[in-house]
Amino acid sequence: MSTAPRMKAGTPDRLLEFDLSAELKHGIAVSNLAYAVAGELGLPHEQCYELAEAGLLHDIGKLKLRSYINGQEQDPLVIEELKYVRMHSSLGYEELKDQGYSDFILESILYHHENYDGSGYPSNKCGEEIPIGARILRVCDVYCALSSDRPYRKAFDKKTVMELMIDEVKNFDMEVFLAFQRVVHKQ
Questions:
Q1: Of 37, 80, 91, 156, which is the most buried if we count CB atoms within 10 A?
Q2: Does the pLDDT value for residue 55 go beyond 90?
């Protein structure tokens, strides 16, 4: 006998209310962009492919947080301040570490919110301490988030996204950021 809660006909499934569809679209966008940036940087084909996998999976830890996120989607300050949201990269790493993924993929996911200046999370790594895959995902994740609609705001246009990212360039590895710009300007 199933222990899953029963839903009345027509009642939305509150467990998936955080918009799984938008998360999947975001993962695909990050994956495609990360693959292209890795190629632009001259990474080996295998690492480009692994970075595409990491891009698709980078926010998988959010699935474990949906009970904290549900009901907060319309309030960006509440979402951003929730200490639990900062756990998603660690939760994703823990979820995937025994499922056959390479260390390159796992570390890219774990550290994709580390900022180049050391102000990120989960470990406050800085500069070259941050694995190259995570440095690439960081730039791609920010770009894709800013250029997509969110429940609390519309997507920014490409020019505005680039201006916002330049304002926060301290967060990014400059070599990665320049490769990212070349890729985006080709699109």
A1: 37
A2: yes
